[in-house]
Amino acid sequence: MKTAKSVMLALQCKHTEVVDVKGPLLSYIRATYSDKEADDAAEDLTMIQQLRSEATSIVTGGTPGLKEAQAKYLRCLAAIETRFPISKDKGQAQVNFTWCDAFQPKKKATQANIHFEKAALMFNLGAVMSQIAIACDRSTGDGLKQACQLFQEGSGIYSLIRENECIKLDNPKPMDLTVEVITLLEKLMLTQAQECFYHKAVVDKKSASVVARLARQLAVMYSEVERLFTAPALQQHLDKSWLAHAQMKASIYDVETLIQVAKTYQGEEKINYEISVLQEAFKRVQATKKICKGISNQMYESVSKVQDSIQSSLTKAEKDNSSVYLQRVPPFMDLPSTAGALLVKLAIPSCLEPVVSEVLFASLIPDSSAKALSKYTEMVDSKSRSLMDKLATATDNARLKLKEVDLPDMLEALDNKTPLSLPEALRRELEEIESIGGLNHLKGILTEVGQLRESLERDMQQCSQELDNDAQQDAEARAKYGEAWRTPAAATMAKPYWDKVATFRSTLQRAGDSDQSVISRLKGQEEAFASLTISNALNKMPRLEAPMVNMGPEDPVVLVANLRRNLKTLETLAAERAGIEEAIKEMKQKDNVLPKLMATVPQSHEALFASEMKKYDGLEEDVNRNLEFQGKVLTEVEANAMAFQNIFDVNGWRKSCEGAAAGMRESSKTFRELLDHLSEGLRFYLGTSEVVRRCLQECQDFVFTRGVQRDEVKQDLERQKQQMESDQLARQLSTASLHPGAGVPAAYPPPPGLPPPLAPAAAPAYAQPSYPPPHNMTASSTHPSAQQYTSAPAAAPNQSSPTYSPPAQYQQQQHNQYAPQQQQYQGYAPPQLHSSGQSQPSPPYQQYAPPPPPQQLYGAPPPAPAQHQQYVPPPQQYQHPGAPTAPQYSAPPVAPQNQGYQPQQYPPQQPPPQNYGQYYGQQNGYGQPY
């Protein structure tokens, strides 16, 4: 899975069109030399034409041999450059190279310039190296080393393009080959090489301090890349996702630096420093999440995991500090800063170096001329580099000297407000407050806190409803079944959950009180927080003014005029140096000594070099004159600046500014305190939300389990009731059929319309009935149900039933033949139907064992129902069929009958508002979406 720290960028190659290189060069050789030289060079030109096709037809880094083909074609272009002048001028080889823009392929550019072809090929070679580096296995140390080397070589290639090729292109230059774009790509490749070093340190499990320094350097380098992306020309040409990528990288490695620094403090047992750093990291990761949200959900989720890790570490550290260390947490600004560690530098690929075995156009230029040309090129490079270094040093010296004397800010303070009037620490603080959004940032956090609180209220309300519903259903069951309902009471089983809900409500009430305190402070400081900007702070600073009475020899007006004139002179000298730099580059670009070398004998090459190098003497004199004049101006500026500070009492003005900034400091301090409180509240609500959601899930599981067990108990009680009724009916009918021909007892009168029963007579011959096979008979077929005994209409009073009953012996025989063999249920004592003096035959029906009692909540599952057993009446008195029998196990405690539903009591709470923003003072703008 890609994360914000693992994803890197690879460049796309430029596309080209088919270009005839062989034809124009062969024509030039024929026109300039002879047919023989043209025939000798034809084979080399054919090879170059084929090599260009191979190097430009496929532009994917995964193609084998593409990198080698591109490098070889670049070496061939170097040989062509030194032998054939290619341009649109008459008498030169006119080869038109066409290339598409790498970032906007619809744009094409065509130039008859060998440097345009070289720059495009080098661009593609750097892009291919970035693609190969991305494809490396960066989860291992070897893969990271390989990727790092490729990124360094890619950076070196773009450095060569910027220094040697960009300035030699024809105007208008393609946008993707301008100095700005090439510089950006050079910095990007070098930054990703540094990132490989960081990941290798993590893989090798280096110390937290080492990883922190590498992450800090990455944050600085990606910030520089982000700055280059923001150039107006690049913003319109490059995709916006590139800028978002650089912003995300700079932000995430800034946070990673703080995480590693916190780990360092943890190892040193500086718990207070660790807490301060983690608090700052938690604040900064919020900005990172906003950036990642606009890139992809995958990046957003990876940064969210980083935030959760920071929150977990911070919570643990604060808990340890509050319980063990008890150290004061210092402000983050008071902690020492972390310095970066740069471990990479650009590297020139070895594949671009000339190969001895590759000899092209040997008949056109002798080796002595080639060596002489190389020597002269080195002399020109050395001279131009020396002059450019002098100009750059002069520019740096002027900038540093003006910064020492606070110019031109000191002169601007006379006319209008300047940042110089702000104390440095306050200015940095205000810039940081403005960067995070100031007052709107606090309101945004407050809105998020309100939304989390509303979600908490809903979850706790749902918990209460679930428990109330369970208690209501339990009360209804107890009212219906009375003492037979032996499940534990809802008030007893749900007490832990009611306690949790009450604890959450109490905690939320205290958090609400804390929120109200923060809101009250925010309302009181809203105007002050809105003014925490650089512009408002400058308006409150005193102006630098000339003294009412001048006690010195210098006139303040004249002194100010001299300083302004000195600054103007320095600006003129800086512009002159810029012109000299352009002149040196242009002269170097146009310095083509090859035709003269080819026309000069080798013995005269040194004299030719000395003559050609004199062209640079005039530029060298201009450089020296500029540096000398600037030195005099800087000396005068230093003297005038010292006199200016004395006359205008700059030190007293700075003290006045310090006093005027006291109020802004207090407001900034209060802003930081409220920001810390709100960040703490946000972390509290995030953690509490997770706990309450787990409690809600537990309540729902509890209520669901109770409902399932309650339904099972109800079914058991209903079956027990039906069984008792069926057994009672069966016993009564069995008693009525004990004597053949006996009349139906009064409890079961004969059906109406039948004649009175006949007197007992001799039993007729009885034919044995036909029964189905025993394996098809079930307990229900041998045991008469209540439906069988109640389906026929009852007989009229004083009438006997005409139904004939078989002899009791035969009846018992048939019953024993088909009745299933069952085990006697332990502890069951059926009622005695007759007095002890009577002898009755076994009734032809079976008795069902009573169901076991219901199980307690969260206990073992109820046992399987007992098998039906043959009923044997014991010698005891008759009992009502509905009377319960004594079980052989300990029954659970039974709640009092008809006790009713009594919900758990907890302190009354204010109902959650429909709009949390109103609860937090929405009329004043709080709670609005940020």
From TrEMBL:
One of its GO terms (cellular component) is endosome. Residues 740-930 are annotated as: Disordered. Residues 7-398 form the BRO1 domain. Residues 777-790 have a biased composition (Polar residues). InterPro entries: ALIX_V_dom, BRO1_dom, BRO1_sf. Keywords: Coiled coil, Cytoplasm, Endosome. This is BRO1 domain-containing protein. It comes from Chlamydomonas eustigma.
